[in-house]
């Protein structure tokens, strides 16, 4: 029996705040993978031309090197891009998809490796039949690689920024003294993570005092893992003010 399907995954923080993630459909994921296959084919062609020079030494060496390079690209392409681009390949980036941990936690390198190693199984016997069937029988459209790695694929959305001049007015942002660290923070933060921080700031007055402290401590700790600002930049400011500064950096540039 096929389980009831859903287009969103809802997650609740320990403070009772609910966030929803839009799940990618199997069709959109297949289109992204088709783009990635075209990219892999192009890389293989370029690499083949380079390896072809080994024919001068030995055709056997050239054939062996091409065989290794082909399988290396098949596996390494997804691992490399999803690690460097925080859950995105070229195809996923073009179609605005992203791999995430199924609990919304930080995506670990081991998860990326597992889901890409099992891609061969998902692609059996052809045209991604096993993976497509797994998506149909999975509540959150997960292929076997996602189930093993505990990952999901979501659709990224453009987050519309409110009038931050009113929300953040009158607050000095000490993080702005470090533009290179600000750029690194923007590069490492996903749209979903930026959206969570923004919504927390917007809804801060709706929380009970204890829940408010715990929520901003959790979000602040999460962003501090991305970039370590000098101690003088964060001394004397609360976790809530730190998150407000992060929102200022992410949405006002």
From TrEMBL:
It comes from the Bacteria. The chain crosses the membrane at residues 30-54, 66-85. GO terms for cellular component: membrane. Its main location: membrane. InterPro entries: RDD (IPR010432). It is a multi-pass membrane protein. Residues 24-150 form the RDD domain. The keyword Transmembrane helix applies. Keywords: Membrane, Transmembrane, Transmembrane helix. It is found in: Membrane. The keyword Heme does not apply. This is RDD domain containing protein. It comes from Candidatus Moduliflexus flocculans. The lineage of its organism: Bacteria, Candidatus Moduliflexota, Candidatus Moduliflexia, Candidatus Moduliflexales, Candidatus Moduliflexaceae.
